[in-house]
Amino acid sequence: MRFRQALPSLAVALVASAALGPPVAAAPGEGGGAVASAPGEHAGGGGAAYGQPAPQPKPRRRPARRATTSGEHRFPIAGAFDWGGADSRFGAKRRGHRHQGQDLAAASGTPVVAPYGGVVTAVQYQARAAGHYVVIRGEDYDYVFMHLRSRSIVVREGERVRTGQRIAEVGSTGESSGPHLHFEVWVGGWYSGGNPIDPLPLLESWASPA
Ligand SMILES: [Zn+2]
Hints:
Blueprint: H1 10-18, E1 93-94, E2 97-98, E3 102-105, E4 111-113, E5 118-126, E6 131-138, E7 142-148, E8 160-161, E9 166-169, E10 180-187, E11 195-197, H2 200-207
Antiparallel strand pairs: 1-2, 3-10, 4-9, 5-6, 5-8, 6-7, 7-10, 10-11
The chain binds zinc ion (ZN).
The site of zinc ion (ZN) has 5 residues, from loops.
């Protein structure tokens, strides 16, 4: 269910976030050594074709049995949320780069769940950008969840998660001044040769079961 006016602080939060500086050069946990920039929202582009249609996603490991439909995935927020405006979108301008994900406003403490089964490849903290964040190497895409609430993460690196499994709660850690989930979808591996794609079409399909 959409929630139009419940979260008036989002726009302020995003503006504040956009005005802040470059990321701390912290390597992501499973980056494989070739990572030069932080995994945060303020990291570099990573080869994404911003402003252009997202490439057709290709399942990396296991061919999808069917198309990625709402019946097989879960929306990453299990509760009320708000899509936000243009500044919440993938490709929105940020200082020095483009936004690599979709921001979804929700009350602090709202459960965050795995959209699809996979393995947790990072549970990390980055004070100046992503805050508490989790990366799941899903069986179709890599999923990234940022600004998670302190002490809310209930999964560990290496753990296998199932579709819909609770992993954390919405928070406002890192460069964020209002509770929201920064959600990224990567094709080809998070900071390991892949690139982020616009998550909005996927999110919309998961939010609106056929
Ligand atoms: Zn964001």
